[in-house]
């Protein structure tokens, strides 16, 4: 039986320096997203979203990046879910991307705000019908007694909305405005390349971190 302590991968596909990074971190993130898509990464837009409760207890889950506009990362969810309630209490969060195919990681930290209703409406209308019905049917993060009641709600909602499915008032988007972004490129002997972006008042300053 393999020891967990013995499982390791030696990285070395690429290097990374501040000089080769874009001036803006979201532009650099877009470059790496494009690379991940071209490389056939599974769920290239998947990111771990970390939030904290009122008592400072962290929790994390995977969500999907659905846009980068006006300096924000966009994602969508149920406002009444555990993460929605935590963001209402503490609007600071972090997201992490990991693309093992490219030996790359990106960490983004910043303040999160709800997106305008028009933005949430536009994205909701683009979702498959089943996902739109599901947003109404599921009281996300609440206990589920059995699958029958959920299936019954789905059936009732399909009857209620035979054509257009409006966006539920408890569902919508968030925008994370970064104030710290780090790009990580795996390197041999765990001497990884790390480039940190921090705001400098007029733009972004790039620097290298020790591995």
Q: Which descriptors apply to this entry?
A:
211 residues; alpha+beta; nine-stranded antiparallel beta sheet; 5 helices
General description of the model:
With 211 residues, the chain is of the alpha+beta class. It has a single domain (8-127, 169-209), classed as Electron Transport, Fmn-binding Protein, Chain A (Pnp Oxidase, Chain A, Roll), CATH 2.30.110. Helices cover 26% and strands 34% of the residues. It is built from 5 helices and 9 strands, in the order αββββαββαααβββ. The chain has helices at 25-38, 82-89, 117-126, 129-137, 147-160, and strands spanning 46-52, 58-64, 67-69, 72-78, 92-99, 104-114, 171-185, 193-199, 204-209. Strands 1, 2, 3, 4, 5, 6, 7, 8 and 9 form a 9-stranded antiparallel sheet that branches.
Query: How large, in whole angstroms, is the Cα Rg?
Result: 20 Å
- The amount of beta strand, in percent, is 25-35%
The secondary-structure element order is HEEEEHEEHHHEEE
The level 1 CATH classification is: Mainly Beta
Rounded mean pLDDT score: 95
**CATH architecture verdict:** Roll
The overall strand count is: 9
CATH topology: Pnp Oxidase, Chain A
CATH H level, superfamily name: Electron Transport, Fmn-binding Protein, Chain A
- Helix segment count? 5
Q: Any chance you could write out the topology, listing elements then pairs?
A:
Blueprint (H helix, E strand, L loop, with lengths): L24 H14 L7 E7 L5 E7 L2 E3 L2 E7 L3 H8 L2 E8 L4 E11 L2 H10 L2 H9 L9 H14 L10 E15 L7 E7 L4 E6 L2
Antiparallel strand pairs: 1-2, 1-5, 3-4, 4-7, 5-6, 6-7, 7-8, 8-9
């Amino acid at each position: 039986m393999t020891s967990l302590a013995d499982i390791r991968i030696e990285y070395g596909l690429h290097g990374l320096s501040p000089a080769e990074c874009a001036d803006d971190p979201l532009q650099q993130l877009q470059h790496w997203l494009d690379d991940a898509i071209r490389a056939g990464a599974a769920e290239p837009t998947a990111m771990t979203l970390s939030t904290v409760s009122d008592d400072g207890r962290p929790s994390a889950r995977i969500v999907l990046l659905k846009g980068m506009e006006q300096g924000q990362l966009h994602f969508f969810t149920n406002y009444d879910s555990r993460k929605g309630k935590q963001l209402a209490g503490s609007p600071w969060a972090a997201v992490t991307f990991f693309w093992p195919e490219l030996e790359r990681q990106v960490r983004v930290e910043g303040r999160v705000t709800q997106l305008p209703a028009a933005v949430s409406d536009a994205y909701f209308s683009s979702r498959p019908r089943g996902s739109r019905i599901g947003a109404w049917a599921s009281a996300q993060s609440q206990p589920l007694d059995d699958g029958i009641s959920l299936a019954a709600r789905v059936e009732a909602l399909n009857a209620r909305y035979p054509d257009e499915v409006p966006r539920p008032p408890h569902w919508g988007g968030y925008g994370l405005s970064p104030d710290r972004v780090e790009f990580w490129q795996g390197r041999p002997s765990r001497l990884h390349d790390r480039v940190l972006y921090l705001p400098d008042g007029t733009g972004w300053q790039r620097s290298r971190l020790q591995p």
